Amino acid sequence: MTDMTTTYVNLAPSRAEKFRQRVLPMILFALALAVIPLFGPSRTTLTLMNHMGINIVFALSFNMLLGRAGMLSFGHAVYLGLGGYFCVHVMNWIAAGSGIWGAVPVFSMPAFGFAAGALAGAVIGWPSCRRAGTPFAMISLGVAELVAAAGFMFDSLFGGEMGISADRMGGHEFLGLTLGPLEDVYWYIAFWTFVGVVGMYAFTRTPLGKLSEATRDNPERVEFVGYNPQRVRYLVFIFAGAFAGLAGGMSAVQDEIFTPENLSLVPSGAILIAAYVGGIRYFTGPIMGAIVMTYMGSNLSDYTAGWLLYLGLMFVGVVMFVPDGIAGVVYGTWDIISGGKFREVAGSWAIRLLGLALMAVSTITLVEVAFRWSDGYGEVFEPFGLALHHGSLLTWIVVVVPFALGALLLRQAARAENEVTT
Amino acid sequence: MTGEALQLIDLKKSFGPAKIIQGVNLQIEKGERHAIIGPNGAGKSTLFNLISGRFLPTSGEIWLNGDKISGKKPFEINRMGLSRSFQVSNIFTNMTVRENVRCGVLYSMGYGYSFWRNIGNLREVSEKTAAILEDVGLIDKAHLPATLLPYADQRTLEIAITIAGGAEVILLDEPTAGMSHSETDRAVALIEKASHGKTLLIVEHDMGVVFNLADRISVLVYGEIIATGTPEEIRGDPKVREAYLGEEVEEGVPA
Amino acid sequence: METVVFALLNGVIYGLLLFMLSSGLTLIFSMMGVLNFAHASFYMLGAYFAYTLMEGSNFWIALFIAPVLVGLAGMVVERYGLRKVHARGHVAELLFTFGLAYLIDEVVKIFWGRTAVNYKVPELLDFPLFTLYGAQYPAYRIFILLVAILMLVALWYLLRRTRAGLIIQAALTHPHMVGHLGHNVPMIFMMVFGAGCALAGLAGVIGGNYFITDPAMAVQMGPIVFVVVVVGGLGSLEGAFIAAMLIGLLQTSAVSINASLADIFGFLGLAGTSEVGGITIASMAPMLPFLLLVLVLMVRPTGLMGDREV
Description:
The structure holds three protein chains of three kinds.
Chain A: H1 2-11, H2 15-35, H3 43-69, H4 77-96, H5 109-128, H6 133-153, H7 155-158, E1 164-165, H8 182-204, H9 207-217, H10 219-223, H11 229-255, E2 257-258, H12 265-278, H13 285-303, H14 307-321, H15 325-338, H16 342-375, H17 393-421
Antiparallel strand pairs in A: 1-2
Helix pairs in contact in A: 2-8, 3-8, 3-11, 3-12, 3-13, 4-5, 4-11, 5-11, 8-11, 9-11, 12-13, 13-15, 16-17
Chain B: E1 4-15, E2 18-29, E3 33-37, H1 44-51, E4 59-64, E5 67-68, H2 74-79, E6 82-84, H3 97-106, H4 123-136, H5 151-164, E7 169-173, H6 181-194, E8 199-203, H7 207-213, E9 216-221, E10 224-229, H8 231-236, H9 238-244
Parallel strand pairs in B: 3-8, 3-9, 6-7, 7-8
Antiparallel strand pairs in B: 1-2, 1-4, 4-5, 9-10
Helix pairs in contact in B: 3-4, 3-5, 4-5, 5-6
Chain C: H1 2-32, H2 39-56, H3 59-85, H4 90-112, E1 128-132, E2 135-138, H5 139-161, H6 163-173, H7 185-208, H8 217-232, H9 237-255, H10 261-265, H11 281-284, H12 288-299
Antiparallel strand pairs in C: 1-2
Helix pairs in contact in C: 1-5, 1-7, 1-8, 1-9, 2-3, 2-4, 2-7, 2-8, 3-7, 5-6, 8-9, 8-12
């Protein structure tokens, strides 16, 4: 027994490793959340930050399904929406102040959202988790349509097209936060983002969390070590619904309104894109994706009417060429730099970056010119003093030449890499 | 350790018109090491799939330690103390070696679908996992992703996952297929150690392994058992010779 | 009586259109294992291509050319997109087509604008064919019926009577075996994907002016086609046909029923003034396919005709 205990100690990560890999990132994350208000962010920035927090929790909950359990859902917003709707109702009960509701702090909304999301997951997951893979994906889509359609039908529950709004200041002060000013809401969101992220990280460390990964890798083998893969999926589905509901509760306080639109396929697709672009194989991937996508969604739309198209292009590009997403690129780069191999790859990276930049120039020109042409207002795309009219030869040179050059460079780089590896 | 660990009663399985298993009767005593041999396509793997619940029998019954298991799901059968390995390595590819074995340990230690415990704090799970890794000789590779293991180590991992749950009845489907001689020797030693005090049912093409390991042997030809007996009896059985006549004895030939 | 007959006719037409879409999807899915999320986007492309072609020529040319163009677009997508992500499994393929649907939506908005285009029924067919119970029935709808039946017969003939059909049928039941027959599998995949998309395009050509041609038509049609395929049983053409007709009839007849839930369940004490009681069957029509989906899956997870666990 004695040497068994020593091997056990050897296998488990040391205290220092655990601290470095698990505790330290959490402390840094908490610190980052705490430091942000010191910079005196504007109202717009605060709102953006708050939405980032909501989307971080939402994207991570989505990835409990796709990344961790291999379940592709097209209707994950249903659980955020139902959790959020429940919270909006609770907030209104609190504002009415009748019975025990008067004593409930608005600060606790995400807990209610969590419960409602879990319940929704438990009810809807029952018929939908009987199939895995592609059928599961299609069923999730059908269920989302059904719930969204029901949302438009039952006005007393969902408020019809106008939705249901609530007042976040309706309840008692809690921890010195009235939740009136945006700064208060920021602290509220920061607290629950932290809770959600830590909670979902902890889930990956539980037996069920590990079994969900095993079920993703090899559902058949799971059956032969004593587990029912359907049951594993169902339980994971409930938790994913619950954490989405948590995000719903955060959103209910930030935006003070929920509409049936929140249940629909549109936000479900958006979170799928955010999580995937971030990188579903890494725990931190969806966090990065949520931050980038929220930022793009709020800022890029000011610059260009074609931002949805850029988003789609980016998503397809990631699916085709960078399946590990932003996190994969970040960690891969870090590995290379910390491994001291930067010099070896610097040349090919420069070529790649140049190729990508050229293709981006071409694509952006094409999209921008196309949008101005289709609007029909006679506007002309004028970058850097150039006037790129859709009919002029210059425009098409700017579209075709960089594209061809970029494609050539990328192909060259890929070929060179193949030669190195083989 | 008396009585039957595994009992097959008039077991039949057809796929459409093809009758793959045509009435197999077999009793395996507790603690016995039993090998099933036979030419390719005789239905050996199908038999394993029936016993472990992967396929439902067309007719007939299977009993494990006095409980009927035919008709039950694989995970139910596994929980009742029967564990199997696969001919083609069937591991959790994106997990480390240690995580693979741990998946095999968890259910048997009562942690089922637990979502309120930190897996790192489950001391007895970690100890059992480490002990198994030590036993099978994969302890040095514990932190490697399973996909990066060389072939023979993947086969070993396959066995490690199978025995991890502490099942009393173990089914191994061609555990040494595709291994070199030295690798096969090591695998046989491992199987001997792992099946100590347990009931073992093994499908194997390597006759050296079979005659070395088995207490009794059954010969399966075209879905029927034509002979069952000790290695000596089987060696001398004219029916067995006839069945293998015209075929090369498949010593060391991978399936 | 007249509502019943009209609902029946419209339901059959809608069902056949649904089948035209879902048959292509089923073929692609059964052979390649790819659930083409963008399938309804190709349907939309069919309608828009026909609209543009009609401006330069006439409807009859568009009827033949537009589906071919859509099929070619599908082949390009398969060759240069899907094939690249194929090695990474079905979820990657599904995500690719999801992104593609997104892109096609945006591109359509650029080329044809965000509002509906005036894709009209050809003048030749723009007359009431017959009058039933005092109500006129447009000739174009019967034309849709004929085209759909013609397609049905052609598909049946192709699958049952030609060599290509035999290979496709073999691939439907034994997807892994086709490669062993010595056929060029990537080529077959490309052709099947193209053909499936062309069928969707044809549905778009004849359905775009029956319904409405706008950038939302893909998003509206897509989920319903998925429901048809799942309810029918993945990989089953017969199942897809039954499910398409079922949903077509269900939805069109529901639209014409003005009864409310209170009228039906009044005997249970449901009042017409209550919120649930006040819901009419007609307003529930868009929900019915999805309700059917959930019901079928609870009773029979493999779908009506499916026997294959995927």
